[in-house]
Amino acid sequence: MNTKEIISYLSVKVALEHSSATWRDVAHRTGGLPVYQDMGGLLFLAGDGDVFGYDVAQGGWAPVTDGWRGAALRHAARLYQELAHLAPVRPPAAQDCSACAGSGTVVGVECARCFGAGWITSPSGSSE
User: Fold this and answer.
1) Where are the domains of the chain?
2) E strands of the chain, at which residues?
3) Least C-beta-crowded within 10 Å: which of 7, 15, 51, 59?
4) 7 in helix, strand or coil?
5) Is 16 exposed, middle or buried (0-12, 13-18, 19+ CB in 10 A)?
6) Distance from C-alpha of 63 to C-alpha of 48, rounded to nearest angstrom
7) Chain segment 32-86, per-residue pLDDT in tens
8) What is the full DSSP assignment across 14-45?
9) Axis-axis angle for helices 21-30, 3-17 (nearest 10)
10) Rounded distance between C-alpha atoms, residue 62 and residue 71, angstroms
């Protein structure tokens, strides 16, 4: 199966079986694959692998192009081994994130500076 087929298959599975009603609803409404949710909203992958943010309160979604994109791809790879190839690879020039000392977490929570990558590639803190 190619990536599009895998995402489509997993989206249907989530829409039918996931324990979270929100994840089931988003998978059903968008045809995408939810991969991460916090107080700020939910991230999902579209069939082509693009990342979207879903506003649970408003019911709308928009493309994600910042550090959250990498976070969504990392989460997808962790949740579904079939999508492991989507995880961003640390570039040779990347530096350990100073906020989390390269661990990706701060006090057990995903690092807000590097979006859980453990590394940054630019002074602004991007991990993509």
Assistant:
1) 3-86, 90-128
2) 33-38, 41-45, 51-55, 60-63, 95-96, 105-106, 109-110, 119-120
3) 59
4) helix
5) exposed
6) 12
7) 999 999 888 899 999 888 999 999 888 889 999 888 999 999 999 999 999 999 9
8) HHHH-S-HHHHHHHHHHS-EEEEEETTEEEEE
9) 130
10) 16
Q: What CA–CA distance (Å, rounded) separates 52 from 60?
A: 10
- What are the structure tokens assigned to 11, written together? 């989206």
Pair of tokens at residue 90: 């640390």
For residue 79, give the amino acid letter.
Answer: L
Structure tokens at 93: 């020039």
Q: For residues 52 and 39, is the Cβ–Cβ distance under 8 A? A: no
| Residue pointed to by tokens 């990342």 | 51
